[in-house]
Amino acid sequence: MNPRRKKRLIMTSSILVGAAFATGLVLYALSQNIDLFYTPTEIVEGKGDAEIKPEVGQRLRVGGLVVPGSVRREGSGLTVSFNLIDVGPAEITVEYEGILPDLFREGQGIVAQGILTDANRIAASEVLAKHDEEYMPPALAEALKGIQHVPPSQQNNSSDYNQGYNQGYNNNEAAEESSGGGYDR
Amino acid sequence: MIGEVGHFALALAFAFSALLAVIPLIGVARSHGGQMAIARPLTYGMFFFTLISFIALVWGFLVNDFSIAYVANNSNTALPAIYRFTAVWGSHEGSFLLWMLVQASWAAALAVFSKRLPLVFAARVLAVMGMIGVGFYLFMLLTSNPFERTIPLIPVDGRDLNPLLQDPGMIIHPPLLYMGYVGMSVAFAFAIAALLGGRLDSAWARWSRPWTIAAWVFLTLGIMVGSWWAYYELGWGGWWFWDPVENASFLPWLAGTALMHSLAVTEKRGTFKSWTVLLAISAFSLSLLGTFLVRSGVLVSVHAFASDPTRGMFLLGFLGVVIAGSLLLYAIRAAKVQSHSRYDLFSREVLLLGNNLLLVTATMVVLVGTLLPLVHQQLGLGNISIGEPFFNEVFMWLTIPFAILLGFGPLTRWKRQKIAELRSSLLLAIALAVGLGFALPWIFADVVSGLAVLGLILAFWIVFTTAAELRLRVASREHKWPALVKLGRSHWGMVLGHLGFAVMIIGIAVVQNYEVERTVRMSAGDTATVGNYQFHFRSMEDRQGPNFTSESATFVISREDGREVDTVVSEKRFYTVARQIQTQTALQVNPFRDLYIALGEELDDGSWAVRIHIKPFVRWIWAGAILMSIGGIFSISDKRYRLRRKNEKRARKQAAAEAL
Description:
The complex is a heterodimer. By secondary structure, chain A is of the alpha+beta class. Chain A has 2 domains: about 35 residues; about 140 residues, CATH 2.40.50.140. Chain A has 5 helices and 7 strands; from the N terminus they run H-E-H-E-E-E-E-E-E-H-H-H. Chain A has a 5-stranded mixed beta barrel. The longest helix of chain A has about 30 residues. The radius of gyration of chain A is 24 Å and the shape is elongated. Chain B is α+β, with helices and mostly antiparallel strands. Among the domains of chain B are: about 160 residues, no CATH class; about 100 residues. In chain B, the strands form 2 sheets. Chain B has a 5-stranded antiparallel sheet, with no helix packed on it. Chain B has a 4-stranded antiparallel sheet with strand order 2-10-9-8. The two termini of chain B are about 50 Å apart. The chains are: A alpha+beta, B alpha+beta. Chains A and B meet through helix 1, strand 1 and helix 5 of A and helix 13, strand 1, helix 14, strand 2 and strand 7 of B. Strand 1 of chain A pairs antiparallel with strand 1 of chain B, so a sheet runs across the interface.
């Protein structure tokens, strides 16, 4: 083999080996870190036509609306639990230890990541609420199709859903009035 | 009135961009000098009217013109003036107008500084900028008009700016980021112009290089400010979340970094040509992809903004046209710009090839991690999420070979290098890096963490090989120091850039492995001990801000031995109009560690959930990014980009004198 061909062979084969390693690494890391997304209904009744329920111990993501009045703190610690609902009637309970995000409110859509500890109980390692209050995770919006999602900024027109929301968020009644008057609608 | 002026100016800017996209190219086809030369005035026109439009919107915000829907949705009379100004880019329509202003400014800068380029080439580059402009102006006029009116129901007051955005970081983050994003369009325009003309040589690389580096510097700073802002503003204590929106800015950065290095090879050795062109196309396409991801809301992201599907479809269509068009052109013309040159297996070319392959791999990894959930969902396989650990793991493995190659690169000669010549320098660098990598954690930390040691070894390897390279460059000189200064700014740019990367690795390795985080329940009067520090929750007060009310907690921080460090205030703000709660973290900073206190929520018995972090060396991450950017600025200011201009000026003067 002449030196030039040999050089090319070395380069090509080392690139191939490198690419193979990279692909393997990516696939391995992916297999360790992919989490499926469920809605509360899917956890209780199963997902898709085959009605596959997640197994206890599985890592997953769940998205739903926080049921008004379900937020409970336990004892002197920082453990908090709340229920999530989508189209109903299925509800699941999320347990979380730590600080909830600023935008976490009752009635608001949130996403929790964690481990299924019981048929309808999740120990969350992370709770996410979105920057934008009108924003809803597309997966959740999909599941909620048909149910009216009222952006908080328009919730001055009272509804049952809205009342629960206001109760849960009671430290701002004064502010509520001022903003209600601010808009000339 | 002012709204209509802005809207009309925007339409005029669109008209200018449409003319700019067509006339100069016709001129090139017909070799008509006048039609080519008109590219410059058209560019200035596009810039001028975009500026008018932008000023109109700024004016609308400053005078609280709530008849403009965008102003009503994003501002309020109680909002401080400086945030009324930055609210211009606080939401979709306005930030796109800023984007357009930046795009038009780049085009105008190109028009000003391209006078030394051949007219044909400058006409082509500006025409490509015009084409990009056509796409974006159309997008704005059709789907995101910032001057839409609220008539006849004009609100008395506005809804206020998102509280997260009422922060100094937000003043500079988006403009910097957009300068970087859109700057990639300049590199793209150069590449397309080169393909159109079929001429791609060292001179081309020399023209396009400072522009690419400038865009890269802005992108680096933009991402850095974003990371810093998220760190103190979100109250989570993280500096990077691998969130789709962050990834969207990271993708063009990775491709841009590869492009910068590949351009160096094209300039110095006249090779890697078609690869460079492909990278330029990719970098800009990834910028567009990022815009699409952010603006269409197809991805679940903590940043995702309320979005509109027609916008997504438009951007997707535009992205398709840009990618398909430029790749088609590439397929037809790439053969023309192919290069043949020879280099050995151990040469700087091969090391830079390695650098490029690793950066491209990293780009692919981020792309896969960001898009896979979307593809998975579209295939009907259900929703998935790919978490931080995936990216962290893969990036750790990619950084190792990257840093090792980075050490070799600058030391190695173009074409061929005998390894024996470098053996002693390399062995010394390895010995020092490994020694310090183990010794420092062993001396200063309680536990020696394997990953921290690995990171430190890689960082010191880069530092010592860089030092060895500098020593090598002046080894034959008699006066070492003056010789060092004479190395040239471009060279120092590289040195600073690489050292910046090392500094960043140190920051990441230390903070990821030695940070302490605790969430505690505290009432006023309590003291919590975290790490070597005591945090005394002294008092809680109510405060009134311009457009918010706040509960402020005062903490006294002291060391274990009781010596007081500082008194800091952490706040929980309630923005009364936007009706949002927002955490204002308390930071106590020195170069080697951050103490970070974020108030959580108030609990039933009046105590508070408090999150306390000790983050060693976290500042080094951002310092590294700043160092890299300074390196970039040094490179741009290199003599060889300026000298030529001076020479040409002299030549022009001479010509003028002769003509007289």
